[in-house]
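Project outcomes to date are best conveyed with an example. Our students and postdoctoral researchers have been running inverse folding experiments weekly, and each run begins with a structure described purely in tokens. The record below, which covers 593 residues, was selected by the lab manager from last quarter's runs and is presented without edits.
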């Protein structure tokens, strides 16, 4: 290599000036031809390349935009598991124990944490919960219930028939002071092996399975607590163990007085729940003593749903994302006429009152769709028969009935008989919907010369008057449920203050109705039950101890959609939780195939 370089140097040195000039010029020509002229071409190429790159970039942007808009067209939001659900309930939390729970807050808590032998489905049909099935003997006095396999408490201990027997024997024990005590007298409960329970009744009762929805309690935790001390046990408020879809985490209380207290109960999904782990990540029950505080929290977006309002507040109705769930209750709102009173003991007056009340007009003004109640059973219920519904609206006929009964219409617009005005009181709780209905009834009845005095009481005083029957008539909603056994509301034995329930609010007495009610509840065959209840319906239509109005609703308001909550009939406010383990609030976009 070194020798080659030396030879080239010698060659260059041997060139004269003329040869060097030629070489220099040749190099310049080569540089101009192959370098500088091509640099000019490169500038033109650069413009060309930039133009194409810009076009490609624009096409990419358009394609991305098209894909975005098309994806929103072909994709839809679907619910996904997760999320924290905050529910506001009007009321106070006192116990989660299902054998004591009566208020909306307590029954909701019991439903979330505990499971019964049976429960109600989304279609409000009685189905197995802890129980897989049941059978009944031909006399209707022995019910045999079989438990599902692999049942566990939330502390991972197995649930057996021993827990079931323990629970119902607690209810039957007067020292436990359970409000369910009266409904379990005369029922024997025994275990037959770890998964079979035998219920023996003194008399047949077709509706008995509906009593088996009460939450079951753990024997291994509560058996060592004296029965008389059970009501105050910490298990009921801070250390509950159940088998329901959610298990207890913690509880906190805020507020400086009972009137503005807020109780927050934190729950998490129970991983071994028999129907599958709940889809929500957490469920928080917020119990508000103040209605205004709960409404304010919902308006601020602190709550996903609220329970306990009768109507929709104006500010909430103006919110963009709210969803109203009108959950119609298997209950009936009636005006109960005290048939033992001085005025309403007259069937002619009761008939005139029924025929002068435009019930369809009252329902139209409720603000929500519901069914009319026109007899002691609900439309669609077993044994309901439209043949025996109450008389329809007929103002002319109502006036004629009163005139023929000796009630004379005076110049002051009232009717009189023996110098006594046709006047009576109507007791109403402090409920905006019921007050509105009462005022409409007053207007209707004034057209036939009746002076109605509306007495509006707060809840405590109303409950006292209800229990003692201190009224001429009362506007009230009774829970009927899915079974047609309405014995406690209409049998004459339930009118006395010494009766177990004292829920015959009309103090109605009719021997044919009593016999029919007794026979209807003791027959297992559905067709035979329909036949047996016909006598009761016929007597009720003739006597009209009450004015049937409508099925009330349970108003549930959510901030945005709540997947899993179905707008079907429910038996109580806690019935909204029938499918709570499938509730979802989080959403995700998925392609619509």
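After processing, the design step wrote out the following sequence:
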């Amino acid at each position: 290599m070194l020798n080659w370089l030396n030879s080239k140097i010698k060659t260059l040195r041997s060139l004269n000036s003329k040869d060097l000039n030629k070489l220099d010029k040749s190099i310049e020509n080569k540089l101009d031809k192959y370098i500088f002229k091509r640099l000019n071409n490169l500038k033109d190429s650069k413009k060309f390349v930039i133009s194409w790159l810009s076009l490609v970039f624009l096409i990419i942007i358009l394609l991305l935009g098209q894909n975005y808009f098309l994806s929103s067209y072909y994709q839809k939001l679907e619910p996904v598991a997760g999320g924290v659900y905050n529910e506001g309930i009007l009321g106070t939390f006192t116990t989660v124990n299902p054998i004591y729970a009566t208020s909306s807050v307590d029954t909701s808590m019991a439903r979330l944490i505990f499971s019964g032998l049976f429960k109600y489905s989304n279609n409000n049909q009685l189905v197995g919960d802890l129980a897989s099935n049941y059978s009944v003997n031909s006399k209707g006095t022995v019910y045999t219930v079989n438990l599902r396999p692999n049942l566990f408490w939330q502390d991972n201990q197995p649930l057996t028939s021993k827990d079931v027997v323990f629970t119902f024997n607690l209810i039957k024990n007067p020292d436990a002071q359970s409000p369910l005590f009266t409904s379990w007298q005369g029922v024997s409960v025994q275990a037959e092996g770890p998964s079979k329970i035998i219920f023996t009744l003194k008399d047949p009762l077709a509706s008995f399975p509906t009593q088996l929805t009460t939450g079951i309690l753990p024997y291994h935790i509560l058996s060592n607590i004296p029965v008389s001390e059970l009501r105050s046990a910490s298990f009921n408020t801070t250390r509950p163990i159940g088998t329901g879809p959610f298990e207890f985490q913690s509880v906190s209380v805020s507020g400086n007085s009972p009137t503005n207290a807020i109780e927050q109960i934190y729950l998490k999904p129970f991983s071994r729940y028999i129907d599958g782990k709940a889809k929500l990540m957490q469920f928080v029950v917020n119990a508000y003593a103040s209605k205004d505080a709960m409404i304010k929290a919902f308006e601020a977006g602190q709550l996903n749903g609220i329970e306990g309002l009768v109507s929709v507040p104006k500010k909430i109705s103006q919110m963009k994302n709210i969803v109203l769930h009108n959950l119609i209750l298997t209950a009936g709102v009636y005006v109960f006429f005290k048939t033992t009173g001085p005025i309403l003991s007259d069937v002619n007056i009761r008939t005139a009152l029924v025929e002068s009340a435009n019930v369809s007009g009252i329902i139209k003004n409720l603000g929500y769709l519901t069914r009319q109640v026109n007899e002691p059973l609900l439309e669609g219920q077993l044994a309901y028969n439209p043949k025996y519904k109450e008389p329809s609206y007929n103002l002319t006929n109502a006036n004629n009935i009163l005139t023929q009964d000796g009630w004379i219409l005076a110049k002051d617009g009232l009717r009189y008989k023996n110098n006594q005005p046709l006047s009576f009181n109507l007791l109403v709780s402090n409920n905006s919907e019921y007050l509105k209905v009462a005022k409409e009834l007053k207007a209707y009845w004034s057209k036939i010369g009746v002076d109605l005095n509306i007495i509006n009481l707060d809840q405590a005083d109303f409950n006292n008057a209800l229990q003692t029957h201190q009224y001429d008539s009362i506007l009230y909603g009774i829970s009927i449920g899915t079974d047609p056994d309405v014995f406690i509301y209409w049998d004459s034995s339930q009118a006395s203050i010494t009766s177990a329930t004292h829920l015959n609010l009309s103090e109605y007495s009719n021997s044919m109705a009593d016999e029919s009610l007794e026979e209807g509840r003791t027959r297992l065959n559905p067709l035979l039950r329909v036949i047996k209840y016909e006598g009761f319906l016929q007597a009720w239509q003739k006597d009209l101890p009450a004015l049937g109005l409508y099925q009330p609703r349970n108003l549930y308001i959510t901030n945005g959609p709540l997947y899993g909550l179905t707008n079907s009939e429910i038996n109580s406010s806690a019935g909204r939780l029938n499918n709570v383990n499938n509730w979802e609030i989080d959403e995700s976009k998925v392609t619509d195939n």
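The chain has two domains: 84-327+554-591, 330-550. The radius of gyration is 38 Å. The training component of this project remains on track.
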